[in-house]
Each structure stands twice: as C-alpha cells, then as structure tokens.
Amino acid sequence: MNIPIKTLQCFLTLVETGNFTRAAEQLYLTQPTISKMIQRLEDNLGQQLLIRNNQKVELTQAGVLFQHSAHQMIGQWHRLQEDISNLTGLKTGLLRLGVCPMMSGMIIDLLGPFREKYPGVEVQMQEFGGFGCEQALLNDTLDIAFTALPVTHSEQISSQLLVRYPLLACLPDQHELISQEALTWKDIEPFPFIIYNEDFSLAKLISRLTKADQVKLNIAFRSGQWDFLAAMVEANMGIALLPEPICQRLEPSKLTYKQMQPAMTWDIALMWRNNLPLTPAAKALLELGRKIYPQPEP
Hints:
The protein is α/β, with parallel strands linked by helices. The protein contains 11 helices and 12 strands. The strands form 2 sheets. Strands 3, 4, 5, 6, 7, 8, 9, 10, 11 and 12 form a 10-stranded mixed sheet that branches. A two-stranded antiparallel ribbon has the order 1-2. The chain is globular and about 70 Å long.
C-alpha cells in the first residue's frame, strides 16, 4: 500500500475543517481534486473513512482509527524532515508551537530572542486552551506548547516551569468585598463568579482548589478572553480571577484587585511529549527558555 504524505495531510485537513469547501480553500486545491484523493485513499484501504453530506463530513469507525494513525505518520515525517535538515545545525525548519490566547503578550520575551537567534526557523503557532494543547501534543500535531500548570496528562507529558505570576481576585470598584485586605474562596462563594472555559488549565486549577476547600462556586459565565472577563466584572456581573500581568493592562480606576488567601499563582511552562524526542527547534526553544527565565522559587 502506497499512500502519499500529501493524501494524509488532505484527509486530516478535511476532517479538521469539516467540509470540502473549507478544506479546498485551506489546501489551495479544487474540491474535485480533494474528492478524488479521498476516494483513492478509501479504495486503497478497502474501507469507507468518511460519511459525506452537503453540510459536513463525519468519520466512520474506520476513519477514526485511520485519523489517529495519520496524525502519527505525519508527525514522524515532520520529525524526520527536521532531523535531516538540521544535521549541520539549526538553520531552517518548522516549529509547531501551541499557545494559549491568554499568554500571547507574556511569551514575547522568549519568542523574540528565539526569532533573532534562529531566523530561518518558521514558527507555526496554533491557539488552544491548556487541555487542547495537551491533546495536540498527544496527537503529535504540536512539537512543544506553552501551558499553565498543572498538566492533566502528567504521565505522558513533561513540563518546564518558566515564570510564576500572582493570581488576583478582580472585583468591580463598588463591590462589598472591597474593604477586605485579602479574599478566600469562602468569601467569593456567595457571589457570581466568571471563570475560564473548561479546557483552560487555570479553570482546572480553580476547580481543584475550590473542591479541596469544599467550596461550590456560583459560576455565572465562562470565557476564554481575559478582556471580556474583565469587561463583565466592570459591568458588575461577577468576580473573576486574573493573572497580575493582565490586571496591569486594565483600567485601574474601574476595577479593584485583591490578593487571594492563601496566595495563588499562575505558573507558565513549556510542555512536550515525554516519549518522543524533541525536534531540534523545540529543543532550542526549551534551552533558550531555561536561560531567559531565572527559575522561580518553589
């Protein structure tokens, strides 16, 4: 059986986009061309991989199995290309990097120097929440990713702490808790709470800590955008928990920030699959991160 890498990429793009129109636009191919490639693939395998209709495509049971293998094969091909192209040093290549949207402004201190040191390496960034980055690493569609600790799949994923920021309770400026010097989860429990989407590591951290304190938060809204969270707090729609660097960007006259008791931190790290070798570009990013960020105290 001879299946070209391009066909695997076409299949995965089609599954990701959900229909032939978007896949054709992304791959710069015509829809009939994609249809013929998928048909030849199914003929080679002797199995139907996709259920087609006018709106979307869905995976058959065979398609689900093949999708997992296709991810692995594309990942192995990518790693082989990177290893061969860098036999004489890291001059060119592709770094598949996962980034949480909330971290974008806080990782420039690493990405800027990386770009200066390795100008020939293309950095292909994909945005996910922390859990989404973990899934992409496990599917071998990312080489390395930024995350907020802790990681969920700790038995399969290694991590390197880079920097630690305080987490602050964010309140509207007329809130009744403003007079308190610091807040506990028990203080926050009676009030509406605005939290991150469930695939964010920070949401999982908050869930774990409140469960340990036997606190049930009154969750009013979820969002993956820190500016939207802050706007809802400002509109007196609830309390949120924000990392200190994000608080510093907001209008201080409209919001009030309080320390949490006990103190909480937002721990930013790099993470990668521990059973796969790092690509040369991913290894270089990790090594540079260890040099740029002095290791925080435990």
